[in-house]
Amino acid sequence: MTSKAVVAPRSQPVGAHHGAHDSGAPNPGAQTPSAPDRTALSGARRIVVKVGSSSLTSIKGGISEEALTNLADALAHKRNAGTEIILVSSGAIAAGLAPLGLDKRPRDLATQQAAASVGQGLLMARYTQAFGAHGVTVSQVLLTADDFMRRSQHTNAFRALDRLLNLGVVPVVNENDTVATHEIRFGDNDRLAALVAHLVRADALVLLSDVDSLYDGPPSQGAKRISHVAGPHDLDGILIGSTGKAGVGTGGMATKVEAAGIAAGSGIHALVTSTPNAAAALAGEDVGTWFSVNGARKPIRLLWLAHLASVQGTLVLDDGAVQAVRDRHTSLLPAGVAAVKGRFEAGDAVEMVSADNTVIARGLVNYSAAELPQMLGRSTRELGKALGRGYDREVVHVDDLVLV
Prior knowledge:
With 404 residues, the chain is α/β, with parallel strands linked by helices.
């Protein structure tokens, strides 16, 4: 989602320096005519809740016992009332900073991994204690982007999470920061939470942070809370706030809006609000910003391809191929490829663009960048005869292609 929105903590409004809405720009997201139906939360069977680092930790103080306990109280109450809860929790790297004597979040991957390795155990120990006070068992589940890329792995991940939920456990999910590389990282746990919600077929996704809602401008200037987003158009012309001042998070509100959009676009209601509002949100009260479903559920691989895949190259399509891929949703054939850019191997993710460089789709390519030039503009039948079996396939099969 490319639109932008200004946000502010309920207790500490954002000042004008965070940016007002564009001059003369419409603000259709300020209020929508019809109130959203939040029974998807109050009566949900299965909910994914994501909490950010800034809500649980600080650089100087490590894990906030009060914040973590209050969150666990709200989630355990909901779990004991019969709702299955999965908690996607940031905070491992932040929790590891103080024990390692670090005064800020490290930029290099190796030190981030070291901090995560120390902090993850501390975080889980606190969760075990806090949920245990309510008779609720928690488990640790660490995931990487690879677990959503390969069918066998995401099937196993679903099976494990589903069984834990059936046993009454609250799985605590985090990215496996200790082993993840720059190339396969989620980048933030907001998108991870959206994919987990889709993976486990959740009824709703709740994204918690240190801000209570989206706003249509700086609250100090009389801005209104955006209570309901029916679709991406509701945020046209709105500016988005960035990561907060705590200095321990990575996403900011932009990634929460993006994650809520991913969920809503794939059949899952989403709510963005502050961590102190967790209990009210789970009860279906009118807090935060509600994102209504605006699309159907999609295969998990296509969600990964659309939102997480590392693009290795570009295929320039002719006008006929653009129409076939975009309008008729067909496979991409060699005859429709006008040019190849980048270095990639068979199986890599590539972007498909029109002659004016407008991105049409992403897909997993069946040939390397070295193989494709000799194939351009030729039919699969001709290629099969000239180059042999294996060259009579699509460049990108429709099952491995997603429009963007």
